[in-house]
UniProtKB/TrEMBL annotation:
GO cellular component, one term: membrane
Protein known as: Undecaprenyl-phosphate glucose phosphotransferase
Pfam families according to UniProt: Bac_transf (PF02397), CoA_binding_3 (PF13727)
The keyword Transmembrane is assigned to this record: yes
Family designation: Belongs to the bacterial sugar transferase family.
Annotated keywords: Exopolysaccharide synthesis, Membrane, Transferase, Transmembrane, Transmembrane helix
């Protein structure tokens, strides 16, 4: 799974608070069972102990939430965390004590164990908060909790926004961008780094957490042009303004450095969604690979015996954020030492396809080596299918929103494929429909949708009459 530093700053805070919730619940149960074993030298615990421990764990998660312990702002103060956690845990203890009296199990409960549990959990909570304090201080020192912002807008409004953003110690404006070059090379001490097109290129090379657009003082046409260029970028994009002048696709509202911001584009997979997707790919991908290894061995032998050349075919394709990746497939065509750089799509009765390759392509067995791409982290089990570089550049120029497919990792199977849009796309309309299904998947991603697509792939996704 990806290191937490690979997430944007806002997502990292969400992940930290989520992990803290889970840690608190585990500590409540862990300390209770450890002390019971210490007192009785056994883990054969009466059922009413389980009831008490479960009740305490559930109440802890709720009372701590009500106390505001998991708010990102409260993480900055360790003393406030400890005081609030002590109050929440005491309320939990009182609620459990009331439960014990109501159910009349006090005479069977070990009072020494209960008292030690109360103080033991409090000590564990306190130590956890000091560990978090130490880790946050280290993260701040390395800039891991600082939001890296790209600002679009270099005129008067942009300068005012920039001045306010720079007052926030957790914000770093990495560059200013605009449609027209300003006279200065730097604006309020921040470098001017070019046009919006330059920004689109930059997000593939550097970590940019958010894009802030300060262009309320521009024409609606100019703003629409900027949004059209940023629509396919897999980064949260926010507009510093109100919606009265422009027809914007507003998806939410937040503040940054005291500035009110409207969310116009959002990353399709944020925080826990990205974690769940990574776990799905690694765990399911590993088990599917184990099941597929015997089939892959047979296919590899068949490919080798059928025609001269390597068993695996490697091809450069575009992956997440339009970065090039190497995709693996079983070779299904005759080995060509000088392949056509335009990469013509396979057609019916294509002479380049071998006998074994024809079967592999129709059954999708040639895609099985992409499980290694999934375990490498360059692809997902489910996502938009990656296209050859030449095809990508061709269709990006003629299909609106085509590059939006790269806001997530490409997949071995996808929503378009299980709905029949697989194989040769000999007309722009076929590719346009595939793109529509891919964008629907990205905008509506969920773990259940992924599992549905995987299940549909088993029944309808492997064989298709359009695959040659």
């Amino acid at each position: 799974m990806s290191d937490v530093r690979a997430f944007p700053a806002s997502d990292r805070t969400t992940l930290i608070t989520g992990l803290l919730r889970l840690t608190d619940v585990v500590l409540v149960a862990g300390v209770a069972y450890t002390l019971f074993w210490f007192h009785n030298n056994t883990l054969r615990i009466p059922h009413y102990y389980h009831q008490i421990i479960l009740l305490a764990a559930l109440l802890t998660a709720n009372f701590a939430h009500v106390a505001g312990i998991y708010r990102p702002a409260s993480l900055a103060s360790t003393s406030l965390q400890v005081v609030r956690m002590a109050a929440a845990w005491t309320m939990v203890a009182l609620a459990v004590l009331a439960f014990v009296f109501v159910t009349d199990i006090t005479e069977w409960l070990n009072r020494a164990w209960a008292l030690q549990w109360y103080f033991g959990v409090f000590i564990a909570f306190t130590l956890t908060r000091f560990v978090i304090w130490h880790r946050r201080r280290r993260a701040r020192r390395h800039g891991d909790l600082t939001a890296r912002i790209a600002l679009v807008g270099a005129r008067d409004l942009g300068r005012k926004v920039l001045e306010q953003l720079r007052q926030d110690p957790y914000v770093q404006v990495v560059g200013v961008f605009d449609t027209l070059d300003p006279a200065e090379a730097t604006i309020e001490g921040v470098p001017y780094r070019g046009s919006v097109i330059d920004l689109v290129r930059l997000v593939r090379q550097e970590r940019i957490d958010e894009i802030v657009i300060a262009m309320i003082d521009r024409s609606e046409e100019e703003v629409a042009s900027v949004l059209a260029k940023l629509r396919d970028v897999p980064i949260n994009t926010k507009f510093c303004a109100h919606t009265l002048r422009f027809n914007l696709p507003v998806r939410g509202f937040s503040t940054l450095g005291g500035l009110p911001l409207l969310h116009v584009f959002q990353r399709p997979l944020s925080a826990w969604g990205q974690v769940l997707k990574a776990l799905e790919d690694r765990i399911l991908g590993f088990f599917i690979l184990l099941l597929a290894l015997p089939v892959m061995a047979v296919v590899a032998i068949a490919v080798k015996l059928d025609s001269p050349g390597p068993v695996l075919f490697r091809q450069k394709r575009y992956g997440f954020n339009n970065n090039e990746i190497t995709v693996f497939k079983f070779r299904s065509m005759r080995n060509d030492p000088n392949p056509d750089p335009s990469v013509p799509q396979a057609q019916r009765n294509d002479p380049r396809v071998t006998r074994v390759g024809s079967f592999l392509r129709k059954s999708s067995l040639d895609e099985l080596p992409q499980l290694f791409n999934v375990l490498q982290g360059t692809m997902s089990l489910v996502g938009p299918r990656p296209h050859a570089v030449a095809h990508n550049e061709h269709y990006a120029a003629i299909i609106d929103g085509y590059l939006g497919r790269h806001r997530v990792k490409p997949g071995i199977t996808g929503w378009a494929q299980v709905n029949g849009y697989r194989g040769e796309t000999d007309t722009p309309e076929k590719m346009r429909m595939r793109v529509q299904y891919d964008l629907y998947y990205i905008d509506n991603w969920s773990l259940s949708l992924d599992l549905k697509i995987l299940l549909m792939t088993v029944f309808v996704g492997f064989v298709n009459r359009n695959a040659y």
